[in-house]
């Protein structure tokens, strides 16, 4: 079978290799991968594996969906033919994150899913919502769960609350869908009026073009009667945290998920406004299962921006680097 | 001005009396009441004031909406012309309920709102969602807030979860609306197929006629793949708690709001299934304000079943006693 | 090696059998059991395995402590020589309880630890607090964790709060120790003045002899200025729930842990007082680890009432049935 | 009666003035102030009232304790002779902080308590724990409540957890006392070995002199086996937030209370370690009452470092500016 491996730095160094298909040991499941989506973190790992502490060779990508081919002895959760997704953290079932869990990330500490076959423990897999294609399902393990965890599990999102989303990348668009599904209102930013129009068509309440309105936190305050929003999903970028702190209401929450978030913190404002800044690192299997119930109940469809064949996975990573996408970038396997 | 007063037991003893309009003291607000809705608790207070510990004479009803006529000195939250609702507990602003708060219920410890005018502290009033009529707004302070508190504030309702509602009275229909708004699925029971059809039209996912299916908890388990529901709003009746315990999932919640709930408790099942039974007593002003944001954002309209003129308030109480309503019973003032 | 097995109903039917020592498979750990404590649930399982749905033959007891003898391949949490305890639920790592977890109880769905050797998955074991003996450690997996979960994890016990404990069995005495450690005040009941004196010596604030004061809920209200207690650990018995509901404050919590709790529920009081009745079913490994940190930091010593040698385990079960103990009953292996 | 007033910038501009004693209006209480403690925020307000938006003239200080002299009509919570403390926010009873509440701070938006008499609403007062002197009680409304809110109300402090405290100012020493009372372990930093010895005598588990060990976060990691602490009370200073982020465990909390906290935020670490940074702005009356129960139950005595007579209040502010204190600075009135 074929599998991509990071053996050196840079997208162009990423190559397909032939590997044996491993038999599933007791408790394990052999999965025929059908699609894998790319996250910014996967892109960074490919770009600079040494700086990011990635042992090589390493198969990239945390997010994949496929079909169960064979199960090891004692496996009770799945049978051949089941359509499944891997969990980002193979060992985070429920409760708070632990160091154990953190050492079990696919495409990081462990080999990822950009391969024709993977063998995973049955506890590191969840069933796909029935209405989804493999491409759609492959977008859920990291980006969707990060959005769900931020707003629903941590944020306790209520109908009528207002959510601020920064940009139209994978996490933001998932967050838009979950917020709308929860009866909340969404303010979303982008540098493209066309993307803002798409977000509006998906249910966004207000939109802000941050190119024409660089001090977008003021626009947010105007839209909310000066009170600010209930929740921000802070996907990061230079200097955004301070603006997010300004844009959130007294007692509001800011989910800190950005790999690249930088800049100073206005600690006095955090204190005075009783803000919660909460680091969010994907989520547990239990949260994933909660999310899947919601996706299934609403027959929600993740937004897949572009699809690349396995052989062109490098082009998919280049596409992520260009940051022009709306929703998710997927590789079919 | 005219005001109803409980001076003896029974609906037919309830009469209109003439009273002076009191000037608002500092911090107080004079409100011209326009509508008042009836809750089962108001009905019981009128029926048996002695047994329920009601000091007489006492103006009944917690729930009312009207217009601000005059404000006392120092009032900053309202001005004449504002459309407002009273809060059930005049002294429960936020946080957990306290004994102080419990001693401040309108139509119980304090005179209620079934009168042409009332004077309330400015902290015991909230603004009406702009799109509502007075009749609609008058249904919110007790029944709607009880439903909101049960599902959203206490239950932490998430999209994709399943809610079980018992019957089609005021609280249940409000709970149906809030659950749908939150992206949840609703199973609702009634003895009337016609009412079940109405509930379905409002977004219920599944319905159960408990006359033709008296062991409705089994139907609930069937509908949920044997797992049970996430939340029950237990409005009570003979023997319902044990069925609710059977119908809820492991780790689920049962909001105990029924004035008349009776029967034995299967404590072993509560323990084994890690169920939370949570007493819910209306809610705080802060929850009320959260709810109003949701109602306004969704332009939700409470279901008013029947409207009676002030002079026929006794007929409204009789109507409540017959328990044939779908949604709320309102008296216009 | 020797292991007890339930093959028929009744304590006297419980017998020792010879069994092979199984080699640990990948991920598994072979433990030489040194002590096992008895819980009321173990007693019921031995007494009436058929009524309790126990498959036979079945080795009883959830609670044990011992030494790691050998580890299977891939085991990273333990090495030979480590002193460990099994977790009650072998598959409840963290978060809320799931059906999966519920099907993994030692001495119930799975073989228990009343044996010279057991093989468990490495995720179903935790390290012993260093200062404890095996006998002491063997009391923690069920009784202590139930108490800890009730008061600290669920109850959110704060310094200065008041806890009501019913009787002086294993859970109650553990709860007394955790409550004192947390800076809370304890009211404890018993039918024996001598046991009450022992509880007082361990830090109880107030004691009630429920034989001389059968309406103990009134004494509790007197001791708390009429307000009631913050938390009750409801270990059960006939008619205790209604008294606990009367004894708890507005907004208080009642941890429902009693296997035998029976009786009617005053649902109106639950509603009016906004009480939380929360079923507690032991706890997760994550809670266990939190508890062990506290036990280690305080060098807390569980109270072992009586110790029986392995051959006399039947006497230990009879002792549990007599209900005269203060703290825990332990079998050394 | 005499009252200090801020009429210009700087400590030396702070002067005593004669004022009328105002009669309490309905709902109000006249209090003879006996002691007032100083917080860093009071110091800043005196130093730079213009920069801090203080309307002048303004009586400084949020924290005071005294005796009820007279009550207005309708007051039910207090009677003459009661020993009371004012609440920092006069309008924050319970629940989350609101904008209303924020506009009701004593010594900021409203006149403070550095005066012989004050008139406050009965809802803006709480009873003193009986065992305290007025000087001791005067230290509770701001510093103690900030510490309690951070660790107990927000942090959910459990026995066995580890708390990191920065310095030996008022909040840190209160936090030390509450942490010890809760069964937690404390690591505390100071530039003075003598102060560290005092902290150790009060129950601190470990101490770090940050002068001899400027990279104190490394010492914290060493003391905690590389895992980090559960909670940090971040009272601020240049560059401390980044060190606190390094010193806290995965999933830990950092209470952000520092008026002067500055510096950059390592957002990647916040995300990766799933840290909660929570702004804490004193606390509600409900939290204050919880805290008082704990203080009373433990007969805890706040640490008063120095006491100044009313006439020398300016010296007390200079003392605060020198930052050499251990515990609280108090002015007797």
Give the helices and strands, then pairings.
4 copies of one chain form a homotetramer.
Chain A: E1 2-5, E2 15-18, E3 28-38, H1 40-47, E4 63-71, E5 83-86, H2 99-102, E6 117-121, E7 125-127, H3 134-137, H4 140-154, E8 162-166, H5 170-181, E9 185-190, H6 193-201, E10 206-209, H7 216-223, E11 229-234, H8 240-247, E12 248-256, H9 267-272, E13 276-279, H10 285-298, E14 304-309, H11 313-322, E15 328-332
Parallel strand pairs in A: 8-9, 8-11, 9-10, 11-12, 12-13, 14-15
Antiparallel strand pairs in A: 1-2, 3-4, 3-6, 3-15, 4-5, 5-7
Helix pairs in contact in A: 1-11, 4-5, 7-8
Describe this structure as you would to a colleague:
The structure is a homotetramer of 333-residue chains. The first copy, chain A, is α/β, with parallel strands linked by helices. Chain A contains eleven helices and 15 strands. Chain A folds into two domains: 2-139 and 302-332, Quinone Oxidoreductase, Chain A, domain 1 (Alpha-Beta Complex); 144-279, Rossmann fold. Helix content of chain A is 29%, strand content 26%. In chain A, the strands form three sheets. In chain A, strands 3, 4, 5, 6, 7, 14 and 15 form a seven-stranded mixed β-sheet that branches. Chain A has a six-stranded parallel β-sheet with strand order 10-9-8-11-12-13, with helices on both faces. Chain A has a two-stranded antiparallel ribbon with strand order 1-2. In chain A, helix 1 packs across helix 11 (313-322), helix 4 (140-154) crosses helix 5 (170-181) and helix 7 packs parallel to helix 8 (240-247). The radius of gyration of chain A is 20 Å and the shape is globular. In chain A, 59% of the residues are buried. Chains in contact: A-B, A-C, A-D, B-C, B-D, C-D. The A-D interface holds A 96-99, 102, 227, 234, 236, 241, 250-251, 256-265, 267-281 and D 96-99, 102, 227, 234, 236, 241, 250-251, 256-265, 267-281.
